[in-house]
Every structure is written in structure tokens, then in C-alpha cells.
């Protein structure tokens, strides 16, 4: 069975991800207590279900301890299991809770050691939730939804569904430093030192996906040198990441606006590595 486990920080878009999977044909369960996961998968397998998506998060705070072991057992049993973790910057989460006027799930739960007469603030709830889910985040494919539109998140989820993995998947993502660094990066490279096409009035409205911008950067010796250095670094350390049994390696390339240099670098790196590896491209600032 193909299984997507969805977890993450409240307000980061887990419901959106679950809805996309349900629309794609997955049998979906929200807020499942982790102790029931093996029994649920056994039942669905007997019923002939081929694909399931299950949301497990801090709402089941008291039963998270055994989840990692359950995941390992399901993989050992031959199930294709992907763990997707959604997160976002604290300020983005606060804005979303303010917009929806919903309370954080942990604000209604009394956790061990908590004084019932001392309620937690929203920021404290988010910080507590991050600590509770830290172990899951470390083994998952992480998506930072801080600056994403809902349509972008839906598109990225559909992309993950269509990946047929036999080994590690390299995910190249461009971003803008002025918007903020992504939270999901395994490796991050800064290309702001390269000549900026933004200052050419003819290139300014274009992106690194357009030929005039590509030709401009190809004519810059330092751009080609940096591209070669990044490629060689990835090639050198990729076997170590594979040996670590990772499903995804997220490599983020940043420039000032996330439109020209970082996009160009991502496109060139993806073109180089897709001949031997499974590659996914994301441009965070391009809609």
C-alpha cells in the first residue's frame, strides 16, 4: 500500500494537503491517534485499499511516542510510506490564526507539568508544538509554507504524489533572501554575489527561466565558476546523503529577489543532475 503520513505545525496547511490527496483518490483519515496506525493499515489492506493518507499531529499529543517505531514496522512490511511535514515561520502562523480567528489546538489541552490556571499564549503553543514534533520533522520531507499561496501548496503536493522513488529525490528550490530563508533546506547556497540581471532594464521583467537572462549569466565567468563549485560539492556529498537513507535532499539557492540568479542556478543544476538522479524543481517566488 502507498501511505502518506501528514504531520506538521498547526496552521501550516495540513488540511490543504489532505484534501489534495483525497481528491487524488487516497483514503484519508484526519487526526488519527498514532497507536491506531498499524491496526488501521491492516484493516485497509484487508479491504483492498491501495493508497491512504493519514494526518497525525500534536492533537494526539499523548500517543506520539511510538509513532517512529510504527513507521519503521510499516516500511519493513513492504508498504511505500512517505512522511510529509508542513511547517511555517511563527509570524506567518500567528497571522493565519488571527485571520481565521481559530485557537491553537494545544491551547485547550492540559499538558504534563502545566498549571491549569496559567493558560499558554499562541506563541507558547507554537513553540511547544515544534518541540513535540521535532523528531518527526527530522525524518520527513519538509515543506515550508510561510510564503506559499494555497494553489502553490496544492501543486507541490500533487508533484510529490507523482514521484516514483527508487532512491533519493533531489529537490532544487529557488528563493528570495528578502522574503526569508526557507525552513526546509538541507543545503543552502547564496548567489547574491553574482552580477544581477535586475539592473538591466530589458532583463528586469524576465526570470532565470528565460533565454536572455540565461545568456547574460552564462557570459559571467563567476556565475559559471559558482555553478561548477556547487555541482562538485553536491556530487561529492550526495553519496553520504544516500547512505543516510534519506528520501529527499532539499537544496535551496537564494538571491535577493528570487527571480533571476537563483532561478537560473536551480534550472542549471536540475538539468545537470537529472541525467543520473530523480530531480524536482521549485521556484518559491514565481507563481
TrEMBL record:
<dbReference type="GO" id="GO:0005524">
    <property type="term" value="F:ATP binding"/>
</dbReference>
<dbReference type="InterPro" id="IPR027417">
    <property type="entry name" value="P-loop_NTPase"/>
</dbReference>
<keyword id="KW-0547">Nucleotide-binding</keyword>
<feature type="binding site">
    <location>
        <begin position="57"/>
        <end position="60"/>
    </location>
    <ligand>
        <name>GTP</name>
    </ligand>
</feature>
<keyword id="KW-0808">Transferase</keyword>
<feature type="domain" description="RapZ C-terminal">
    <location>
        <begin position="169"/>
        <end position="286"/>
    </location>
</feature>
<feature type="domain" description="RapZ-like N-terminal">
    <location>
        <begin position="1"/>
        <end position="161"/>
    </location>
</feature>
<feature type="binding site">
    <location>
        <begin position="8"/>
        <end position="15"/>
    </location>
    <ligand>
        <name>ATP</name>
    </ligand>
</feature>
<dbReference type="InterPro" id="IPR053930">
    <property type="entry name" value="RapZ-like_N"/>
</dbReference>
<dbReference type="InterPro" id="IPR005337">
    <property type="entry name" value="RapZ-like"/>
</dbReference>
<dbReference type="GO" id="GO:0005525">
    <property type="term" value="F:GTP binding"/>
</dbReference>
<dbReference type="Pfam" id="PF22740">
    <property type="entry name" value="PapZ_C"/>
</dbReference>
<dbReference type="Pfam" id="PF03668">
    <property type="entry name" value="RapZ-like_N"/>
</dbReference>
<keyword id="KW-0418">Kinase</keyword>
<dbReference type="GO" id="GO:0016301">
    <property type="term" value="F:kinase activity"/>
</dbReference>
<keyword id="KW-0067">ATP-binding</keyword>
<dbReference type="InterPro" id="IPR053931">
    <property type="entry name" value="RapZ_C"/>
</dbReference>
<keyword id="KW-0342">GTP-binding</keyword>
<protein>
    <submittedName>
        <fullName>Putative P-loop-containing kinase</fullName>
    </submittedName>
</protein>
Amino acid at each position: 500500500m502507498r501511505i502518506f503520513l501528514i504531520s506538521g505545525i498547526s496552521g501550516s496547511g495540513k488540511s490543504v494537503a489532505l484534501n489534495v490527496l483525497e481528491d487524488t483518490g487516497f483514503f484519508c483519515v484526519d487526526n488519527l491517534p498514532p497507536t491506531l496506525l498499524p491496526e488501521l493499515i491492516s484493516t485497509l489492506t484487508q479491504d483492498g485499499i491501495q493508497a491512504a493518507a493519514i494526518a497525525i499531529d500534536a492533537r494526539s499529543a499523548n500517543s506520539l511516542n511510538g509513532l517512529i517505531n510504527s513507521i519503521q514496522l510499516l516500511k519493513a512490511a513492504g508498504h511505500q510510506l512517505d512522511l510529509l511535514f508542513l511547517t511555517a515561520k511563527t509570524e506567518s502562523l500567528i497571522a493565519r490564526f488571527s485571520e481565521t480567528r481559530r485557537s491553537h489546538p494545544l491551547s485547550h489541552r492540559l499538558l504534563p507539568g502545566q498549571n491549569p490556571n496559567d493558560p499558554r499564549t499562541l506563541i507558547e503553543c507554537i513553540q511547544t508544538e515544534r518541540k513535540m514534533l521535532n523528531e518527526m520533522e527530522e525524518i520527513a520531507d519538509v515543506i515550508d509554507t510561510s510564503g506559499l499561496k494555497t494553489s502553490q501548496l496544492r501543486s507541490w503536493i500533487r508533484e510529490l504524489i507523482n514521484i516514483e522513488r527508487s532512491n533519493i529525490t533531489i529537490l532544487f528550490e529557488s528563493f528570495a533572501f528578502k522574503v526569508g530563508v526557507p525552513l526546509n533546506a538541507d543545503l543552502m547556497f547564496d548567489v547574491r554575489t553574482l552580477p544581477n540581471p535586475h539592473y538591466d532594464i530589458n532583463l528586469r521583467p524576465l526570470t532565470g527561466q528565460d533565454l536572455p537572462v540565461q545568456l547574460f549569466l552564462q557570459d559571467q565567468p563567476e556565475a559559471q565558476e559558482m555553478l561548477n563549485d556547487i555541482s562538485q560539492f553536491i556530487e561529492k556529498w550526495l553519496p553520504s546523503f544516500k547512505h543516510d537513507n534519506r528520501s529527499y535532499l532539499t537544496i535551496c539557492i537564494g538571491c535577493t529577489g528570487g527571480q533571476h540568479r537563483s532561478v537560473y542556478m536551480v534550472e542549471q543544476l536540475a538539468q545537470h543532475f537529472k541525467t543520473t538522479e530523480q530531480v524536482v524543481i521549485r521556484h518559491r517566488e514565481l507563481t
